[in-house]
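Long-time lurker. I teach an intro course on protein structure, and each term I like to show students one example going from raw sequence to a predicted 3D structure in token notation. This year I'd like something fresh instead of my usual example. Would anyone be willing to generate the tokens for the chain below so I can use it in lecture? Attribution to the forum is fine with me.
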Amino acid sequence: MATGNNSNAAFYSISNGKICRQFQQPTTASVSRVNANGKTVNEEFYDYIDGIITEIKTRETTYGKQWVITLKDDAGVQALQMNYSGGYAAAFLKTLPNVNLSEKVVFIPKLTIEGEKKKATLFISQNGKALKHFYTKENPNGLPQLSQVKIKGKLVYDDSSMMDFLEKMVEKDIIPKLSKSSVPEPAMAGESSEESDDEMPF
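-- Reply from a regular --
Happy to contribute to a lecture. Here you go:
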């Protein structure tokens, strides 16, 4: 396996059901748009991203708390960032105990829209096979279920207990098994996270 220079790590996020990478200048494959801050950003979109997981951590950004998953492959080091709470993170973390951490893993996001509702999820596969959730409704394995709370007279889902449980699981059961390859904080972190309303806590 090739080694990677941390300063050259590539940073990715998930936007509109696609893996997304931003560039300072337009590329032959990039799409330009003006973000919520009035800044023009250049983005390339991909169906998936893969690599061996070497680090999982959380960090605070101007867009809120995020997960950062460091991946390593023959091309170097990549960092995939996603919102702390939401469909992408929940799907990944529920599957994580079934991942062979010594082998390459493939992340494939998906966004479905039904009326005004968006549902985001993340499929995880290894060796050409989709991995199943370790935590399910039928076999929660201790995972707290979503609850509903009323905010301004409207019932909304609350995944606070679930995400707290999953974060502790990562710290206790996953991180000690990883061979860390730390990457620096991305200079453009959080830019594409304004698309976070992709995500609902399912």
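Some talking points for your students: Confidence is low (pLDDT under 50) at residues 1-7, 187-197. Residues 9-178 form one domain.
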